[in-house]
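RING-type E3 ubiquitin transferase
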Amino acid sequence: MFIDANIHDVVAGTPNQTIPYAVIEGLVEPVGKPLQSQLGVEGVIQELLMEEHRRVWNKVSRIWYDTSRTIRRVTNRIPFSLACKGGKVRVLEPTQAAMLSLDVIYDKFEPEDSTMGKRVVDWMSGEAIKGYQETEKMLKVGTQLFGYGELSLEEGQVVLRNPSNNASYFITNLSPSELAKQYQSKVTMLKAFTILFGVGTLIALCAFAAKWYRRYRENQEFFAQTEQVRAARRRPDGEPPEELDEEHACVVCQANAREVIILDCGHICCCADCADMLQPRKCPICRRHIARILPVYNP
């Protein structure tokens, strides 16, 4: 919507004297006396920032890295309008709008005086002040801006405010087409990230399923092997079991013969029953993990 002398009548003719969402374009014009920067630049929003820059020693990575902290931040503002072709629109709550950028008017870095003694102290403490940076930013008078928000009449004046329907509120130098391209780029990046995340999740799930299935197969083979050894151990009814010496008896139960070979270590030290019940599944001799077992057939 163009700002001109008829904008008041256009808004007044709408239901509830409100346009829920509109895009306007105009030049920044102060309501009253404008703010003055230290260089004489006039504006309507002024931000003064003082930062301290340090170098800090990281004990883990054992390198120096740069860091900063804000010492002072002051924001001054006055009411302003967007004006064009004889029409004006008062801008309300501009600091709540997204993508409002301020021009850098003044930027100065003052390095900290460093003597040999101070360097030694900084080296011992692990912190060194590099200097102080003073920055001044302003929304200058005469800046061309686009406003995206709700238009309404307030005390006979057209105002632009944060939309009551929860739509996005923008005050920016980007035109609708430029803003749409920027958001389309973000949407494209979000879609790409979502696809990559989905593919990564699918690969992780497939790997987990494959690992679970491999363990399931190993357990089935393990149980089948132990059952095969148990079946070979069974004797006809009434036939007494063979007497075992210590060298051939299971090191765990001392009741059954050493019936299985443990892989990957290769020890032959226990029966199938004990090998099945070992928790955690580790060799009783060397405590290495049991990958699988094989029956031992004694002649």
